[in-house]
Amino acid sequence: MISVMEINSSMAMHRSPLGLLALILLASAPISTRAADCSSTASPKLDWQECTKKNLMLQGSDLQGANLFSTDFSLTDLSGSNFKSANLEKASLVRASLEGSHAEGANFAKVEAYRASFANIAAEGASFAGAELQRANFGGARLSGASFEKAELGRADFDKAVLTGVKFSFANLSRADLSSAVFEGPATFERAFMFLTRIEGLDLSAAAGLEQAQIELACGDASTKLPSGLSTPATWPCPAEHE
């Protein structure tokens, strides 16, 4: 903080009103912002930005509205926790479990979540844009209105997940399993990469952005319903895969 003596000295040298105002503003400005408190216990709106929270048992934590930007939760059990409106952008969730958590409106953009479990999570309106979600488990998840734009979803499992209004635009859905997902309204697949994406039995008649080239790559069957203008490929059904 600038001292009164320093201000008086500067005023003697700079008599203009604008110069005086600048000096007063400079003297009252904080010299730094508060650092993240990595040693604090889980609580709403805490700041764990860039903290390391690996391989911990944090089930049932209340992290509503917390700043978890770039936090490392690799291998951590966060099942049953509250992430409503929390910011987890660029967090590491590799092999972490968020099973049964609440994450409505949370920001998971650009997270690294290889083999993470989001089973039975409530994440309506959440953003997973640009996230690395290969082999992630979204079984039973409630994801209405969520965004997976530009996300990597290779071999992700959406068994019985509710995907009404979800945006998969530009996402990589290679070998992802949507075959038992629930679409109670339109979802967006604009330019999504759908190589061997499992869509057997799905009603995609209201889906937006689907093109014939995507359907030719995907794996459906006679019960798959497609938007008007698209036709069932002769290569359907695909043979079963063995991982």
Number of helices: 3
Structural class: little secondary structure
Listing every helix as H and every strand as E from the N terminus to the C terminus, the arrangement reads: HHH
Q: In oligomeric terms, what are we looking at?
A: single chain
Largest sheet: none
Average pLDDT across residues? Answer: 89
Radius of gyration: 24 Å
Tell me, briefly, the overall form. elongated
Distance N terminus to C terminus? 63 Å
User: What is the number of E strands?
Assistant: 0
The portion of residues assigned to helices is 10-25%
Report what the structure shows.
The chain has three helices and no strands. It has 243 residues and is largely without helices or strands. The protein is elongated and about 60 Å long.
SSE arrangement:
Layout: H1 4-13, H2 17-28, H3 212-217
Offer a few descriptive terms.
single chain; 243 residues; 3 helices; 12% helix; disordered N terminus
Q: Outline of this structure?
A:
The protein is mostly loops and 243 residues long. Helices cover 12% and strands 0% of the residues.
